[in-house]
Amino acid sequence: MLSIIVAISQNNCIGKNNALPWDIPEDLKHFKDITNGHAVLMGQNTWESIPEKFRPLPNRKNIVVTREKDYKVPENVEVYNSLDEALEKYKTQDLFVVGGASIYAQTITKANKLFITEVHQFVDGDTFFPEIDKNVWQEARREDCNGFSFVQYSHK
Ligand SMILES: NC(=O)c1ccc[n+]([C@@H]2O[C@H](COP(=O)([O-])OP(=O)(O)OC[C@H]3O[C@@H](n4cnc5c(N)ncnc54)[C@H](OP(=O)(O)O)[C@@H]3O)[C@@H](O)[C@H]2O)c1
């Protein structure tokens, strides 16, 4: 099962200056709860956006994709020079794509499930999530909270 997990503003923004453009502790907890115990796959920028003291994300197999050869990561973190190779290796396991924009864009057509946090803000950022094609995806679950909503999409 390949899932995408992401927080998106009302204008589709997900990042600014290689960081999250908001501070929503409830969303970080949600992210932790959903991904706990599973493999998480991310691009090099997203890996580097996580403060060193918080990475690798604990209790999860951290997988980083970069085209850089000999990219150095801590022990227990896996690096792939090819996204397809990483997806192939984890195709029989639960794998969560955790960003960023370039990795979301390359995996949204391959994913089985989307975990979207809708952030009820318009944000002046530089990184955006691809369109969620409503011909392909349907809302399966929604929890509205104060300032954000947790929404799950599955295939129609
Ligand atoms: N709102 C959210 O939920 C959320 C979640 C995660 C991230 N973000 C935000 O997203 C932004 C980062 O997104 P981004 O698009 O700039 O970067 P990214 O997707 O995290 O990483 C991009 C890098 O991944 C590597 N890569 C991409 N495709 C590859 C492939 N097919 N094979 C091998 N390596 C590949 C390349 O690394 P090399 O250049 O090293 O080759 C590329 O430069 C940040 O602002 C971050 O805060 C937001």
Structural overview:
This protein is 20% helix and 33% strand. With 156 residues, it is an alpha/beta fold. The chain has one domain (16-138): Dihydrofolate Reductase, subunit A (3-Layer(aba) Sandwich), CATH 3.40.430. The strands form two sheets. The protein has an eight-stranded mixed beta sheet with strand order 5-4-3-6-1-7-10-9, sandwiched between helices. It is globular and about 40 Å long. 27% of the residues are buried. The model has no long low-confidence stretch (mean pLDDT 98). Bound molecules: NADP nicotinamide-adenine-dinucleotide phosphate. Residues 6-7, 14-15, 18-20, 42-46, 49, 65-68, 81-83, 98-103, 106, 127 line the site of NADP nicotinamide-adenine-dinucleotide phosphate (NAP).
Instruction: Specify Rg, calculated over alpha carbons.
Output: 15 Å
- Give the CATH superfamily: Dihydrofolate Reductase, subunit A
Q: Catalogue the ligands.
A: NADP nicotinamide-adenine-dinucleotide phosphate
Count of domains: 1
Multimeric organization: single chain
Per DSSP, the total helix count is: 4
Q: Kindly state the mean pLDDT as a whole number?
A: 98
Shape: globular
Low-confidence stretches: none
Largest sheet, in brief, is:
8 strands, mixed
Order of helices and strands: EEHEHEEHEHEEEE
Number of DSSP strand runs: 10
Strand order of the largest sheet: 5-4-3-6-1-7-10-9
Share in helix? 10-25%
CATH architecture: 3-Layer(aba) Sandwich
Named CATH topology: Dihydrofolate Reductase, subunit A
Percent strand equals: 25-35%
- First-to-last CA distance: 16 Å
Family: Belongs to the dihydrofolate reductase family.
Pathway: Cofactor biosynthesis; tetrahydrofolate biosynthesis; 5,6,7,8-tetrahydrofolate from 7,8-dihydrofolate: step 1/1
InterPro entries: DHFR (IPR012259), DHFR-like_dom_sf (IPR024072), DHFR_CS (IPR017925), DHFR_dom (IPR001796)
Domain DHFR: 1-156
